[in-house]
Write a structure and sequence with these properties.
The chain has 3 helices and 4 strands. The protein is an alpha+beta fold.
């Protein structure tokens, strides 16, 4: 399994985002319970968006998971940046 850092940039429809947020957070909680989501949360300054750290077999599998996000389904994610991340220290690192 690989770890990916995903940066969401949201569109400007804050009122729609607010309405969909409970479903989005429930979906995130399910991903965390399944061991897919390691952490997530919104940025507190700058352009509206969030950082998600997830596990997946590869980027194709990751994008398949992200497509299920209610925010993505509603078109609230204007941009998704996916970066493979080699975690060498900390609780998410994989030790040899």
């Amino acid at each position: 399994m690989s770890i990916f850092a995903v940066r969401y940039t949201y569109d400007e429809r804050a009122e729609v985002r607010d309405a969909v947020r409970p479903e989005h957070r429930a979906w995130l909680a399910g991903q965390a319970d399944a061991g897919v989501l390691l952490g997530s949360g919104p940025f507190t300054d700058g352009t509206p968006g969030a950082l998600l750290v997830l596990r997946a077999d590869d980027e194709t599998a990751l994008r398949s998971v992200l497509a299920q996000d209610p925010f993505a389904r509603e078109g609230l994610v204007a941009q998704t940046e996916v970066r493979a991340w080699d975690v060498v220290l900390g609780p998410w690192s994989v030790t040899a």
